[in-house]
Please model this.
Amino acid sequence: MWLRLSVLTAFRDPEVLLWVGPGKVLAGEEAKVDAPIRLEMTADTAHDIYLKKVNLATALGTGKVKAKGPAMKLVQMASLLKRVYEEYPRLCKKHNLPM
Model:
């Protein structure tokens, strides 16, 4: 179930925007939408987080991920990530991405 929460992630290396919100995911130019949470990280860091090789809290603490937004919204974001954790390995296999 989707929360009424949206997150904009700005990836570096390569530069890509990804917006995840209630029942919808937007990428690229379409993702230039406001969100209460904005995350910034490299694509490699995101890959490692989504495969659970790196813990998001650790990445935030070490500066690998920069977050902007209210702390309570960041806590709610864990529900969105659960869905990503479930789907991401399947997408990696489908698109022959290293795991």
About this structure: The chain has one domain: 7-94. Helices lie at 43-50, 56-62, 71-94. The first helix runs from residue 43 to 50.
